[in-house]
Inverse folding.
């Protein structure tokens, strides 16, 4: 019942495709839709290629070779994930602008007046640069985990056959790592399609900006629903293609004794080159934007840290805390049901729980709005005696709608964390407790839940951080004059007050950084 309720908003979107088109939709379909599709595909395709190259090459270096600072780089290369792409876009736009530090240094110190076309980052190419630099860790993490599980015998066999390191990478390792690469890049594609902050700030017409323009600019919810439906179809097509490309590929060893991979020590020039490449990516993906935000924060904190900012911080923590708690509870219920279910129903339920994360935030927002407006009209009789007057849109103008949308979007993250905990503890303790006469509820509370504490804590933190960074859903569904840290940073940047967006951005990045570091160290110990 809960999952059916979460599916209804998305079904509303698909049903909206069959409604009678408006004049605005006919105009969009005739003159604008082609550019939305083209720009979206260009951003997705170019970002996918760049993240595959960057993430795979970095994973190959840290998995197969030993060079100075390798231990640090293994986890530091994950940190660009802590910087939301839309915040990176504001930061780099300020860095390379006419009054930014680079051009100011060239004019005042070097005495060179640079050509502005070489510093034009607010373009599709600039968006690809931002997406690639801050989303490649999805590919890096998956491919690194795969490479580090390889047997030394595999590499030695290829070397005995006369293969060079480059040939081993191209002809042996990459074909084996194809499932990991496809899995990582599919997450990158979902993030690109979900983005609104980067493409809006750079002025690139894609589906997410078109949905905002149709709804808020034209006041046409019908056209917004149709655009959301087309974007949902594009996402589903991406998922299907990912499944077809990955197929049923799996690789295992014929021997039970597998010698772990021992990284090969690099010396002199190769070691310097490997370290330089890792440092460049780490610097551009984390160090430079964070230091620039820190500098801007020092300049503006006196004017930013006021009651309004504290209220935004409180709103962010409140929303993230409430929603994360609800998601973890739902994940525990669904995960426990899927575990004890003896038929296919448990498998179906678990797959439904994972759908939301693959759907862009703008699409979910449209579906949730239409769903809550319908709900308001149907249950108005219930709260009319309480509120009085003629106000009919109660639920659809409250944070209840926003929390509901967050649950749809991020349930998969909490469920994956909890499900991994269930897999780790298995069924033996559950079965032993049931054999001793305890019912399912008592077994869950007294036996399973204490052992699931690390997974529950991890799922809560992951969801908390993602909600803290979420922008499209919050922009569309927040009540009037309700701000979070993400919307506050977006508002400042959109008003050309990039420096004032630094404090909110730094808080989000700091929380994300601590979470990433904590999870990496926990995973390493495990």
């Amino acid at each position: 019942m809960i999952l059916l309720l979460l599916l209804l908003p998305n079904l509303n979107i698909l049903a909206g495709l069959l409604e009678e088109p408006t004049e605005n939709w006919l105009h969009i379909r005739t003159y604008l839709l082609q550019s939305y599709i083209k720009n979206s595909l260009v951003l997705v395709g170019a970002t996918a290629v760049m993240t595959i190259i960057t993430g795979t090459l970095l994973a190959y270096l840290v998995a197969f070779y030993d060079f100075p600072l390798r231990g640090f780089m293994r986890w530091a290369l994950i940190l660009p994930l802590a910087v939301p792409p839309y915040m990176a876009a504001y930061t780099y736009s300020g860095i390379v602008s006419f009054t930014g530090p680079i051009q100011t240094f060239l004019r005042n110190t070097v005495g060179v007046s640079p050509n502005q076309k070489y510093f034009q980052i607010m373009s599709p190419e600039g968006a690809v640069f931002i997406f690639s630099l801050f989303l490649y860790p999805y590919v890096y993490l998956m491919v690194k985990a795969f490479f580090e599980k390889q047997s030394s015998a595999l590499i030695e066999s290829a070397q005995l056959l006369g293969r060079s390191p480059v040939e081993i990478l191209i002809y042996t390792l990459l074909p084996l790592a194809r499932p990991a690469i496809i899995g990582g890049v599919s997450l990158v594609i979902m993030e690109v399609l979900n983005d609104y902050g980067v493409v809006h700030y750079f002025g690139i017409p894609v589906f997410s900006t078109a949905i905002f323009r149709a709804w808020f600019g034209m006041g046409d919810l019908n056209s917004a629903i149709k655009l959301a439906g087309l974007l949902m179809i594009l996402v589903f097509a991406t998922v299907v293609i990912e499944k077809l490309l990955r197929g049923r590929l799996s690789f295992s060893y014929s021997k039970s004794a597998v010698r772990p991979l021992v990284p090969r020590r690099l010396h002199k020039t190769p070691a310097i080159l490997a370290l330089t490449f890792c440092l460049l990516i780490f610097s551009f993906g984390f160090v430079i934007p964070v230091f620039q935000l820190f500098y801007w924060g020092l300049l503006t904190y006196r004017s930013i840290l006021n009651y309004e900012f504290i209220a935004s911080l409180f709103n962010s923590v409140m929303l993230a805390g409430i929603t994360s708690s609800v998601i973890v509870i739902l994940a525990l219920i669904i995960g426990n049901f899927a575990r004890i279910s003896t038929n296919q129903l448990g498998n179906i339920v678990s797959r439904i729980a994972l759908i939301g994360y693959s759907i862009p935030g703008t699409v979910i927002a449209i579906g949730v709005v239409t769903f809550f407006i319908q709900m308001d009209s149907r249950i108005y009789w219930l709260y009319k005696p309480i509120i009085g007057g003629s106000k009919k849109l109660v639920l659809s103008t409250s944070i209840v709608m926003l929390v509901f949308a967050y649950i749809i979007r991020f349930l998969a993250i909490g469920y994956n964390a909890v499900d991994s905990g269930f897999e780790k503890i298995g069924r033996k303790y559950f079965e032993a407790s049931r054999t001793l006469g305890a019912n399912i509820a008592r077994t869950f509370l007294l036996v399973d839940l204490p052992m699931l504490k690390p997974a529950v804590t991890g799922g809560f933190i992951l969801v908390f951080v993602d909600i803290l960074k979420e922008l499209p859903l919050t922009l569309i569904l927040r009540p009037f004059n309700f701000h979070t840290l993400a919307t506050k940073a977006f508002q400042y940047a959109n008003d050309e007050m990039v420096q004032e967006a630094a404090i909110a951005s730094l808080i989000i990045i700091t929380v994300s950084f601590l979470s990433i570091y904590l999870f990496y160290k926990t995973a390493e110990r495990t």
Q: What stands out?
A: The chain is about 75% helix and 0% strand. The first strand starts at residue 65 and ends at 66.
